[in-house]
Design goal:
The chain is elongated. 6% of the residues are buried. The N and C termini lie far apart (45 Å). It folds into two domains: 49 residues; 41 residues, Topoisomerase I, Chain A, domain 4 (Orthogonal Bundle). The chain is mainly α.
Length: 102
């Protein structure tokens, strides 16, 4: 993040000197977006350190609900469940249709 901040400041200073340089403006925009993305990722990482993100999905949510949601919105089940979890919930994957109602 610090390196991107430094790069951002350098490009900003160059841009002040050459305001009409299109290439420099594109580079400035790209670096600015990268910096925002890095800051967001860093914040998310810090906030999620104390939270077990998969716990409620495994322990409290009926897998048929998740599977039905995936099928309804054409989302691969691999995005929701790991291979081990897919093996564990094979029964839910096989029996659930996209219009499942709990």
């Amino acid at each position: 993040i610090n390196e991107k901040k430094k790069e951002y400041k350098e490009i900003k200073a160059e841009l002040k000197k050459n305001k009409n340089d299109e290439k420099l403006q594109k580079k400035y925009t790209r670096v600015k977006e990268q910096l925002v993305k890095l800051k967001t990722q860093h914040t998310d990482k810090d906030e999620n350190k104390q939270i077990a993100l998969g716990t409620s999905k495994l322990n409290y949510l009926d897998p048929r609900i998740s599977v039905a949601w995936c099928k309804k919105y054409d989302i691969p089940i691999e995005k929701i469940y790991s291979k081990t979890q897919r093996d564990k919930f094979r029964w839910a994957i096989d029996m659930t249709k996209e219009d499942f109602i709990f």
